[in-house]
Amino acid sequence: MTALTGAPYWLPLICAAVVGFAVAMYIVLDGFDLGIGILFPFFPREIDRDQMMNSVAPFWDGNETWLILGGTGLLVTFPHAYAVIMPALYVPLITMLLALVFRGVAFEFRWVAKPHHAKWDIAFSAGSIVAALCQGFMLGGLMGGTRIEQGHFAGGPFDWLTPFSLLCGLGLLVGYALLGATWLVMKTAGTLERRARRSAHLLLIGVLGFIVLVSVWTPLEFARIGARWFSWPNMLYLSPVPLATAFFAVACWRGLASARVIFSPFYSAVALFILAYIGLVISVMPYLVPPSISIWDAAAAPSSQRFVLVGMAILVPFILGYTVFVYYTFRGKVRADEGYH
Amino acid sequence: MNAVLLARLQFAFTISVHIIFPAFTIGLSAFIATLLILWQRTGREHFHRLARFWTKIFAVSFAMGVVSGIPMSYEFGSNWSRFSEVAGNVVGPMIGYEVLTAFFLEATFLGVLLFGWARTPPWLQATAAVLIAVGTAMSAFWILSANSWMQTPAGHVMRGGIAYPVDWFAIIFNPSFPYRLAHMLTAAYLTTSLVVLAVGARYLLVQAFKEEARTMMRMGVGMLAVLGPLQLLLGDQHGLNTLAHQPAKIAAMEAHWRDTGPMDLVLFALPDEHAKVNRAAIAIPHLGSLILTHDWNGRVPALADFAANAQPRVTIIFFAFRIMVGIGLLLIALGLTGALLWWRGRLFTSRWYLRAAGWAWPLGFIAILAGWLTTENGRQPYVIYGILRTQDATSPIAAGTVAASLAAFVLVYGVVFSIGIYYMRKMIRHGPRGAAIATSAVPHALPNQPLASARESTRESRAEPPVI
Fold first, then answer.
1. What is the average pLDDT value for chain A, to the nearest integer?
2. Nearest-CA residue of chain B relative to A97?
3. How far is CA A209 from CA A180, A195, A215, A278, in A?
4. Does the residue B294 lie in any domain?
5. pLDDT tens for residues B171-214?
6. Residue A2 resides in a domain
7. pLDDT tens-digit profile of B59-97?
């Protein structure tokens, strides 16, 4: 592996960074709108639900497109890993896709169906919850290892189902709910905002609990990961990750406690997600399918990776540009009396 | 049933449901963009009302297109992982470019078009609509390029059973791509034109929304009269291209079992796959040769000229092709008749024509599905023509698991998309009435005030009965 030099060494690294970026964008952006759905059962009033839906309606579609970029990015740049991961995670993957069908159509169907929209409230909420759980199951299942024979997936349909993957599923569910609650703090006003602050406080405690649990469980379960974090001098180099996590947890908590602070809880929650993601990357690099397929084993032909990277270098800045434009256009708080007259 | 057949059924089902929505939204986005530009230029409010009306329907259709499309990008891996390994280097980047050039553009500016009426200027609305229309066409460009490469692979080299790119231009513009792209885009525009025409005709039959209905009929008839005959020409050229690159597919389309002389055109038959003959055939001598070779006595390779394990099955291809062509001819008749009535000034008063046009709305969708059944079944038994057999392309997943996921897809799609289509019908039945002008004229200073696209139609639907 280390014998590789030049393009065969660097191209897969750059591609991994790009696919990793797409996945991170997806987790943060779709995270808060999935979180809105996860919180739906705790906000039963129609007027609250209308506002919650309105606060993400212009964005959800673009957010979900990052999921497609993550999936196709993996196919494009690491077809061998894609061809192993998708069959290995077949059951949670298909379940997640079907859950996303329900929640995606609910954004439009809910308004058309009014006043008979109760079923789409359920579809939106259940779809969001199931999708979040499945994404956590997939992450945990992938970390747990995959049975491969002659380069192909050779396991069963429920290999991903372990106590660790269940923990990841619940952790991601609570995490997305925190993103959703802090998003509501930022985007709504009045009682809805106050209730979102209270929920976010509880959810923050839950998220920190899961972060600690995963951080303890992972090195114990996987010796390889334990060695990476707890050997000298890695411990020193990697210490900013837990320290920054503690900093943003405090920032999020204090922001939630002060009624005038509306932005810092959301941005702190995003930072917590990014830090957890960085921690994950540190744990699994350089593997795409730990512990057997590395980014160099799975890489597409260099000319394929180059062709796509050129396009990304040109197009991703545009995409980010008009994404920012849309978020700017729909900035500020959603009000309760808007929409219906 | 074996896992390969189940995986094929799953792909066929999920992509057949999916294609209905993009086929509609490709044309509808262009229609909405045209209406908004016309509104900008003329200032006539009925263009604006129409644009907002169709935008609500577009939103529902687009949402269904998105959620049925995401599974497609993962199905390559979940059910067709060996295909992904063999073709990933070549097909992968094209799908990647589809996401980068099309999906983000459509998804992002749809937010502006749906929710920005109150807070962005009209020119930006029109621009958003144009960008969405461009995005949908770009999406068609890349996905049809990928599909065409699977039909007529070029620009690659095979090493150790894996395809490696050599010449990207040759890969993207592979031999069947220009024909397939032109044929499919035209089909999509025709499909939307038919729906628009049918809705206009139905309103006129009950004398509702007359100004809007007349605009819809003029635009629908105009598109049909121009694009219908053009599609015939494109289809002919596409057929000649297929004859050059996939002659076995042509033989199956025509149920041409043995090459014994100048080829008949079989109008109808019951192909017998075992005896390899046509029963109850109605055929016109020499016409097959004339159409396919543009020569009265031209010879066309028959199924018997191909190895048994390189022949597609005939029945589905034969009938699907006839359905597509039959509908195509019907569309041309509908378009030209409409144009004639328009010229005579009787387009809006000929009730027999309005009635016929009112029932024509599903024809485009049926023709598109039939066309894809023809071309995809015609590629069998290969998934990448001449390179990878379908039976060697699936994932190492047990048949039971694939069957379970297929059942789940059928159940979920069946419920969700039936309801979605019911909602679209409901919105169409209520028509383009209501508060379009009033709402957009209210000067909202607050930037974040998304109006859910379909909300107004909802309020109206509770207040007033449907008109059709």
1. 89
2. B71
3. 18, 22, 10, 18
4. no
5. 999 999 999 999 999 999 999 999 999 999 999 999 889 899 99
6. no
7. 999 989 988 988 888 888 888 989 998 998 999 999 999
Are the Cβ atoms of B462 and A57 closer than 8 angstroms?
Answer: no
- In A111-241, at which residue ranges do the beta strands (DSSP E only) sit? 148-149, 152-153
How many Cβ atoms sit within 10 Å of the Cβ of residue B60?
24
What's the rounded Cα separation, in Å, for the pair B427 and A122?
23
On whether residue B265 sits in a domain, the answer given is: no
B347 sits in which H/E element = none
- Nearest Cα of chain A lies from the Cα of B55 at a distance, in angstroms, of 12
How many domains are contained in chain A? 1
Under the banding of pLDDT at 50, 70 and 90, the label for residue A173 is very high
Say how many Å lie between the first and final Cα of chain B, rounded.
45
Banded model confidence at residue A152, pLDDT cuts 50, 70, 90: confident
Angle between helices B363-379 and B122-151 (to 10 degrees): 30
Residue with tokens 């406690």: A257
Contacts of B68 (CB under 8 A, 6+ apart): A101, B14, B17, B18, B21, B413, B417
Give the count of domains, chain B. Answer: 1
Percent of chain A with pLDDT over 70: 97
The yes-or-no verdict on residue B412 having pLDDT over 90 is: yes
pLDDT band, residue B407 (cuts 50/70/90): very high
Residue ranges making up the domain that contains B332: 3-245+307-463
Distance from CA of A244 to the nearest CA of B (A): 32
* pLDDT for the residue B188: 96
Rounded to two decimals, the ipTM of the complex is 0.86
How much is the CA Rg of chain B, to the nearest whole Å? 24
Of A32, A70, A53, nearest to A270 by C-alpha is: A32
- pLDDT of B290 over the 50 cut: yes
Query: Taking a C-beta distance cutoff of 8 angstroms, is the pair B315, B273 a contact?
Result: yes
**pLDDT tens-digit series, residues A273-285:** 999 999 999 998 8
B99/A68 touch (CB, cutoff 8 Å), yes or no: yes
* Backbone dihedral angles phi then psi of residue B239, each to the nearest 5 degrees: -65, -45
Residues of B in contact with A90 (CB under 8 A): 78, 395, 397, 401, 405
Instruction: Output the six-digit token pair for A275.
Output: 């830090």
Say if A57 falls within a structural domain.
yes
- Decide which of A146 and B384 is more confident: B384
Torsion, Cα A262 A265 A267 A270, to 10 degrees, reads -150
Helix (H, G, I), strand (E, B) or coil at A330: coil
CA A134, CA A145: separation in Å to the nearest integer?
17
Q: Which of B66, B84, B458 sits opposite A61 (nearest CB)?
A: B66
Domain span including residue A122:
10-329
Going by the DSSP 8-state scheme, the letter that residue B198 receives in this structure is: H
**B329 found inside a domain:** yes
Q: Which residue has the tokens 């909420």?
A: A125
Report chain B residues whose CB lies below 8 A from the CB of A83. 77, 81-82, 84-85, 88, 395
Q: Is residue A212 one of the residues assigned to a domain?
A: yes
pLDDT one-digit tens code per residue, B334-347: 999 999 999 999 99
HSE on the CB side for B148, CA within 13 Å? 27
Touching check for A292 and chain B: CB below 8 Å?
A: no
Measure Cα distances from B253 to A83, A93, B240 in Å. Answer: 34, 37, 13
**Å between A98 CA and nearest CA of chain B:** 7
Q: Under a CB-based contact definition with an 8 Å cutoff, are residues A235 and A200 in contact?
A: no
Asked whether residue A120 is assigned to any structural domain, the reply reads: yes
Q: What is the spatial distance between Cα B211 and Cα B49, in angstroms, rounded to a whole number?
A: 11
CA pseudo-torsion sign B339, B340, B344, B347? negative
Which secondary structure element, helix H or strand E, spans residue B286, and what is its range?
none
Alpha helices, DSSP H, located in B79-176: 81-98, 104-115, 122-151, 168-172
Collapsed DSSP state (helix, strand, coil) of residue B382: strand
Q: Estimate the crossing angle of helix B315-343 against helix B363-379, to 10 degrees.
A: 150
